[in-house]
Amino acid sequence: MLLCTLWVLFHLLDFYTVSGASCGCSSLVIPVHVDVLVPKDPTDKFAGLKSNASSLRRIDDTYDIFGVFCRPDAVSLAGASVVQLLVHGFTYTNQYWSPPVEEFRNYSYAAFSCERGLPSLAVDWLGVGLSTRPKNSSDVQYPTAAAAVSQVALHLKTASIVPGVLPFKKVIGIGHSAGSGLLNFNAIVDGPQSIFDGLILTGSLSVPPDTVPSLSILTPAQDDTPLRWGTLDPGYVTTSNRSIFYPADTTAFSPRMMEFDNFTKDVGTVATFEQTPITSLTAQYTGPVVKIVGSEDQLFCAADRCVNITELTALERVGWPAAQSFEVVVEQGNGHDMNLDFAAQGPFNTFVNFVDQFSNL
Ligand SMILES: *[C@@H]1O[C@H](CO)[C@@H](O)[C@H](O)[C@H]1NC(C)=O
Ligand SMILES: *[C@@H]1O[C@H](CO)[C@@H](O)[C@H](O)[C@H]1NC(C)=O
Ligand SMILES: *[C@@H]1O[C@H](CO)[C@@H](O)[C@H](O)[C@H]1NC(C)=O
Ligand SMILES: *[C@@H]1O[C@H](CO)[C@@H](O)[C@H](O)[C@H]1NC(C)=O
Ligand SMILES: *[C@@H]1O[C@H](CO)[C@@H](O)[C@H](O)[C@H]1NC(C)=O
Ligand SMILES: *[C@@H]1O[C@H](CO)[C@@H](O)[C@H](O)[C@H]1NC(C)=O
Fold this sequence. Notes:
Elements: H1 2-16, E1 23-39, E2 56-72, E3 82-87, H2 109-114, E4 120-123, H3 142-158, E5 170-176, H4 178-190, E6 198-202, E7 219-220, H5 221-224, H6 226-229, E8 236-238, H7 255-264, E9 268-269, H8 270-274, E10 288-294, H9 309-317, E11 325-331, H10 345-359
Parallel strand pairs: 3-4, 3-5, 5-6, 6-10, 10-11
Antiparallel strand pairs: 1-2, 2-4, 7-8, 8-9
Residues 103, 106, 345 line the site of one 2-acetamido-2-deoxy-beta-D-glucopyranose (NAG).
């Protein structure tokens, strides 16, 4: 019961989060229409991108996407022309961008960027948090989840997100881990027609499929936390031990962050986990791209993979031949969840610098 109560509390806090004196946040729901083809086999590694028509099925549906919109109130809203669309990783929610515990204020990128004049919208993935959770987990695949996010980006450019805020001219996508994979998927599918004016892909590299962590770190959500997830189909999964998301050096992050993480974790689907190899495909995206990883990322930077940045950049650039610019940044000392370490301010400064740079192109 305690767990349930805490979970509700953390979610309620979202609605009242005010990140510092000069910023205000509000929660909202954006209905989106998605009409895409997904592989009939949800464990298809390339999410249908390499499949023939007979192995695909159509999903034509409408979903509610939940988000927390933060804006600087000192800034003339009519003049705010750029918005950041923040997309969390696997088994996280929008709270990754703003852990709503006061002493964790230093870990809120939504607050950090807002205080520097940048509005943001942090969404929950389809199937996750307070967004629509399809009854059948195999409806939550990269094509559906990514299309929902690109519809949200379109909404930000064409409609008023909250009263008094005009549509934005530019949307910069910032992803973390599977959220970067989701933005990568859109970049592959939409290429030069992409709605995004720049991509900041954190905690994600184009690892060959054989180095992707095995399914064994997953537990069906219904077994992990029956009170919350007992009715979900077994394709909705979570992870019970989250230490791999942090640096191996346990002095690099707060033990309380790990507790908070454990209480606020959410679900993902077997499909999106299995479809990680899409990040090894080529995107004909023409906007600017940066990939940012933590040097202590236990998923992507093991075996000295992130030591020689020249070499790493050359490897990663292959997937982005048409990008206006392409860079790789390695944040020293940060783990996979670079936003949640003591050293979070390092990546935060990097993100803001890239948003400014990309906005002025
Ligand atoms: C389509 O792909 C499936 C699965 O990979 C395969 O079994 C089938 O033979 C293919 N059909 C055609 C017409 O190529
Ligand atoms: C938050 O960060 C600021 C500077 O970045 C630092 O002075 C302060 O001590 C930090 N607060 C906590 C609670 O860690
Ligand atoms: C989910 O949908 C797929 C595709 O339509 C179907 O094959 C599968 O049986 C469904 N699973 C459940 C649990 O309904
Ligand atoms: C979690 O996994 C790590 C290895 O990745 C291990 O060292 C640690 O003991 C595990 N923690 C728990 C609570 O099982
Ligand atoms: C996570 O929370 C659950 C439920 O309160 C608890 O049983 C478990 O020990 C916690 N795990 C860690 C690693 O703190
Ligand atoms: C990094 O990799 C590049 C390209 O493979 C190589 O030329 C260079 O010598 C390497 N630098 C170091 C310090 O190992």
